Amino acid sequence: MQNKYYIETFGCQMNVHESEKIAGMLEALGYSPAATRDDANVIVFNTCCIRDTAEQKISGNIGELKALKREDKSRIVVIAGCMTQQKGAAEALAAKFPFIDIVLGTANLYELPAKIAELKERRARHRGKVVAISYDDNPPIDESVPVARTSYPNAWVNITYGCNNFCTYCIVPYVRGRERSREPEAIIDEIRSLLAEGYKEITLLGQNVDSYGSDRSDGVGFAELLRRIAALPGKFRLRFMTSHPKDLSEEVVSIIAETPNFCKNIHLPVQAGSDRILKAMNRKYDRAAYLGLIDKIRKYMPECGLTTDIMVGFPGETEEDFLDTVDLVKRVRYQNAFTFVYSPRRGTVAATMPDQIPYAVKRDRITRLIAVQNAITEELSGEFTGKTYEVLVEDAPKPGMLCGRTDSGRLVNFAGDRSLVGQFVDIRITGNKASALYGEIVDNG
Ligand code: 5AD
Ligand code: SF4
């Protein structure tokens, strides 16, 4: 067993992309990917702490590494990502799981190669582990980290890091620091070279893409960044996440509408449908403003695929507040919604609010909400049948079967050869099962 790595990723797309950077750094050190944990001599867990369920699951998984480490003591176990960055968490992890060799924070991920070198040196002198957490809220952006991409034909591109919004339930601003925007030239150069390499879809990543540039003095905001991307030649798809309803401007909506390369697909987390709860969440918009924004998007792009994040059981949420959320979901008719049970996060404002909601009530509310959304998703899915859509072939999940998405973001399954991955094909939708669409390739002769 020589020089192989295995990365286990938990959480959001930001982490998926950061794992590509971890892989890039390890490959630059001469490691190659292992098929399983057992085959690897560097095992990295890239962690998430957005909800307690995520942390529980990760702790269980880390526990499983004990046996692997016992089998081969030369193995290097690295825990990285958001979970490590909470106050006191790095020390707690190292104490609970003594076989962990390196704990690395989100702010200094780029130090991984140096920390591996330090560990090897320490081992030679029979010294222990390396804990490297930086609590700098404004760490520098390191543009030199190599990236080993794993999501062809899509390529993730960071535009911002961190978040300034401090929604009262959310741990992200505490574990990822203040919002920092990359230079527009660095972003454009990266996208230009990705397109030259053959990537067909670019997904811009940021905690709040709409506030891109507000920490910089060159006056380039999200709209201007989109204009510069729109000017790049060739056929490709552009997506971005996540938008914040308080900052998504009409200008941005109009640019998306008029640029053929930009997908008509917006993820716009609403979180709640009650003004009282939105205020307590510090979301800085109300129900009327959100619904107004949805109307605006639909005016510019009637076919736009809209998705959202919704939380139930925020402290103080009454049955009436919850019914406001259900009502909003019925009004908007989202293509899809990611629904969550509120989970108190230590250090956030909401965790200390009175009237925490009992788990049974949260469970009941999320079950009812999911049923409402599922019915909507199924109804909307039915409307696709018989129509033809351009689909970018993204993957071959099993032999002879392909999947890809419509411009509006709907996942479609169809038969075809894996050589089509990365190509645009026309698909006629033949039916659906719940939210999954099924179709067949249209032979354009
Ligand atoms: N509990 C439950 N869900 C949360 N989210 C963020 N913080 C919490 C929390 N403490 C959800 C929000 C966000 C999504 C990424 O995760 O809906 O949009
Ligand atoms: Fe969390 Fe709100 Fe920032 Fe999103 S905008 S990462 S929900 S604090």
TrEMBL record:
Q: Which cofactor does it need?
A: [4Fe-4S] cluster
Ranges of residues in domain MTTase N-terminal: 3-121
Recite the UniProt keywords alphabetically: 4Fe-4S, Cytoplasm, Iron, Iron-sulfur, Metal-binding, S-adenosyl-L-methionine, Transferase, tRNA processing
| Localization per Swiss-Prot or TrEMBL | Cytoplasm
InterPro entries found in the cross-reference section:
Elp3/MiaA/NifB-like_rSAM, Methylthiotransferase, Methylthiotransferase_CS, Methylthiotransferase_N, Methylthiotransferase_N_sf, MiaB_methiolase, rSAM, rSAM_horseshoe
Tell me what reaction this enzyme catalyses: N(6)-dimethylallyladenosine(37) in tRNA + (sulfur carrier)-SH + AH2 + 2 S-adenosyl-L-methionine = 2-methylsulfanyl-N(6)-dimethylallyladenosine(37) in tRNA + (sulfur carrier)-H + 5'-deoxyadenosine + L-methionine + A + S-adenosyl-L-homocysteine + 2 H(+)
Q: Which residues form the TRAM domain?
A: 382-443
Question: At which positions is [4Fe-4S] cluster 2 bound?
Answer: C163, C167, C170
Per the record, GO CC terms?
cytosol
**Primary location class:** cytoplasm
Supply the PROSITE patterns for this chain.
Answer: MTTASE_N, MTTASE_RADICAL, RADICAL_SAM, TRAM
Q: What class of enzyme is it?
A: transferase
Q: Which molecular function term from Gene Ontology is one that the record holds?
A: tRNA-2-methylthio-N(6)-dimethylallyladenosine(37) synthase activity
* EC numbers: 2.8.4.3
What positions does the entry give for [4Fe-4S] cluster 1 binding?
A: C12, C48, C82
The Radical SAM core domain is annotated at: 149-379
Pfam families tied to this protein: Radical_SAM (PF04055), TRAM (PF01938), UPF0004 (PF00919)
Q: How is the cofactor bound?
A: Binds 2 [4Fe-4S] clusters. One cluster is coordinated with 3 cysteines and an exchangeable S-adenosyl-L-methionine.
Q: Which HAMAP family match?
A: tRNA_metthiotr_MiaB (MF_01864)
Sorted alphabetically, which NCBIfam families does this protein's record hold? miaB-methiolase (TIGR01574), MiaB/RimO family radical SAM methylthiotransferase (TIGR00089)
Q: Which family does it belong to?
A: Belongs to the methylthiotransferase family. MiaB subfamily.
Subunit architecture: Monomer.
Reported function: Catalyzes the methylthiolation of N6-(dimethylallyl)adenosine (i(6)A), leading to the formation of 2-methylthio-N6-(dimethylallyl)adenosine (ms(2)i(6)A) at position 37 in tRNAs that read codons beginning with uridine.
Protein name listed in UniProt: tRNA-2-methylthio-N(6)-dimethylallyladenosine synthase
- From which organism does this entry originate? Candidatus Stercoripulliclostridium pullicola
Task: Please name the gene that encodes this protein.
Answer: miaB
